[in-house]
């Protein structure tokens, strides 16, 4: 009841102020003797009165629009935080940084999705790209991310996680015929000893940064995007080597490499990463900052598609498990099975 009463004066003010301005102008024109004269001075005064009335009305409308825009942005910020939750700066010994930018001007989130979660099966990450971009793809993003956040804890292997995502997408498309019809998805699992396995449905393979070497994580042909064709009966994860201490993975959506400059040339992500690894120190935050700066400069600040980047760096320390000093069997910082809490979470950057 109190909240209802608090809103009444605003509505009265919103309707009453323009009415008062209009009544003032009409009263002046009909009742003021000066307004009936044709002298130059009377015309100047009359013009000034109506100019003041018009200015007041414009300012009032502008203030109402600014207030409404501020409320819309607050709602968009809340939706953004619920959909693409801010990632902690460290997850189970991995240093994490992520950022995305929507192609739709004024939109904070678009058709790109990502998440990183530590589970008893290892650290699992997803990077995806919904067909289309902007706010029209949000429903599909929510369906896929929601399924991933549940499945990674329940399913022991990536193949079953992928099937859960496929079923969730199918249900969503069946319930909402206006939704986008397919999604490219990359699933990664990083075990406690750094071994990487992946399942790729039509998504670009990430880049592995090891020292000064920049190369694709894998070159295997991906499966078709989710939603186009049924998944095959067997879904064996692809072994992708190891993420050693100090190595980094750069996951991205195709909007990054599809960005063009004024002459129509595509952005070379691999060349940009080669320049990044020459700098020191190479942190996920520095990689992200350098790549986005180069990308926006290349596309003159107007990318044609949604873009997203996710960087994972192995900051675990090797633990020697035998007296001969051979390579350890586990890495420090990976003992916790669940996603660890952090006192200093690093918000996802929405550029």
UniProtKB/TrEMBL annotation:
Keywords: Hydrolase, Membrane, Transmembrane, Transmembrane helix
Positions of the PPM-type phosphatase domain: 91-314
Regions that span the bilayer: 41-61
InterPro entries per record: Bact_Sigma-Reg, PPM-type-like_dom_sf, PPM-type_phosphatase-like_dom
EC number: 3.1.3.16
UniProt xrefs under PANTHER family: STAGE II SPORULATION PROTEIN E (PTHR43156:SF2), STAGE II SPORULATION PROTEIN E-RELATED (PTHR43156)
SMART domains: PP2C_SIG
Top-level taxon of origin: Bacteria
Pfam family, one: SpoIIE
Native organism taxonomy: Bacteria, Bacillati, Actinomycetota, Actinomycetes, Kitasatosporales
Molecular function (Gene Ontology), one example: protein serine/threonine phosphatase activity
Source organism: Streptomyces lanatus
Descriptive protein name: PP2C family protein-serine/threonine phosphatase
SUPFAM superfamilies in UniProt: PP2C-like
